[in-house]
Amino acid sequence: METADQLASVGTFQVLKLPLGFIRVLEWLFAIFAFATCGGYSGQLRVSVDCMEKASSNLSIGIDFAYPFRLYQVSFEAPACEGIRRERVFLIGDYSSSAEFFVTIAVFAFLYSLMATIVYIFFQNKYRENNRGPLIDFVVTVVFSFMWLVSSSAWAKALSDVKVATDPDEVQLLISACKIQSNKCGSLHGPRWSGLNTSVVFGFLNFVLWAGNIWFVFKETGWHKGAARFAGGASEKQAGTFSQQPYNQGSFDQSGSYNTQGNLGQPSEYSQVGGPTSYSNQM
Prior knowledge:
disordered C terminus; alpha+beta; 5 strands; three-stranded antiparallel β-sheet
């Protein structure tokens, strides 16, 4: 208990109130939801085969499948409607690559978010040392954003194919007895997809979180700080240039054609030299 108190006193938990730390915590939670809803899924569908010979019928055939959705390995026994003979039927499709890819990204995102949050809290000085920590954090965040987009899109497509492959109406077509018109086949209930639909939603939410966090991580890097210093130095230099060039009202004096600071009592170049001064002298 004392060790935990010491860590709490040393750690900078204020970082969790900032967007950088707060979004990392959300990424950690959403990653848990993503791989839990997908990796922990198991579903079942039921079909019925009513043979012309009632003794051979099976009105409740349960078919179970689960993650990672290698459906070609899922089999069930169905009556052949020929005496007591039964046949083993296998589902069609293998969607394990997309499902496992999605769960793998979610697990690694969970681990990295947890590690990054710990570094933000307890190793803030090491994180900012030599600007290495923010740069690594920025690159990893960009990579995970892209991977979340790819894995979520692939898993969404695979999920739609899983729904088609496990549709009770499609499964009936695999049973040879159902191809005979004298036999009646039906579907009792299909799988529940709410959990897997939720996993797809969490996948794209994780993409939004990681993509949105790119900006806040980028602000911690030297690239952003260097650009800010360059922009600030350029504005200061421009302001100094304007301050060093004051407006000079007598700038045209050297030409002799314009002088705003001249004495009004001095004769002007436009005065008539040697000319008549009055009308009486002309007379």
